[in-house]
Design brief:
260 residues; Trna Endonuclease, Chain: A, domain 1; two-stranded antiparallel sheet; tRNA_endonuc-like_dom_sf; nuclease; Type_IV_Methyl-Rstrct_Enzyme
Amino acid sequence: MSGRSPTVTRLFWTLVLGGAAGFRYGAPALAATGAACLAILLHRLDRPRRFRSLVRRIARRHAATLALRRRQERFLDAYGNTIEDGWLRERAYFVERTILPLVEARGFSDYVDPRFDQMEAIVERVASGYALPDAIDTPEDGVAYERYCAELLGEAGWDARPTGASGDQGCDVIAEKAGVRLVVQCKRYARPVGNAAVQEVAAAALHWSGDMAAVVSNAGFTPAARKLAGTTGVLLLHHDDLSGLAPVRRAGRRMVTAGR
């Protein structure tokens, strides 16, 4: 039976064993064989529904995080167009890293490629259908946005202060907590932030003797910025992340992670 689908294999052996039993036990065994074959076929026909249900259950476990990431990675540009490139990348990443391993483990490996778009659509519905608290309007002015970010860090227990409009050397906010100094550059943009901001805040961390560095934005980050951040250790955060930001010590070194 090499190369056959599991359903065909089950039907084959059910018929073989059921037929043999029928010779010995007659009509009752044949009736049981027919019922078993029908159950196998119904189970097969129900497979697409079970697949969709599995994907929904996985997505719903992460609904709050998905909804927040969807809000953070979608924004209006200066022309009123909705820019969601960052969210589309995030959605695909979630499907690839979180959903696929689980659906493959449940026997749906053959659905991975042909139904990838369907999985993304399910994730989209879950994320868009989750009710988040109303977003707080952020200041439009850059300096006011820096103060706003400092206030959010203060609410999270950081001793945070803006550095001022001039002479900041790429640092807009200095924050300290539990002996960790965080150097922050704030970007209130209408487009994703590029890797120049990552370079600037990495240098600012050296200038200000920072333990960690972060770029905070309302508008997401370009792939180049994300790549450089991974190399330099700079955190790329949405301002929503600041209320849960905490210093963490690990393996003898200081680092900062966004607690969600």
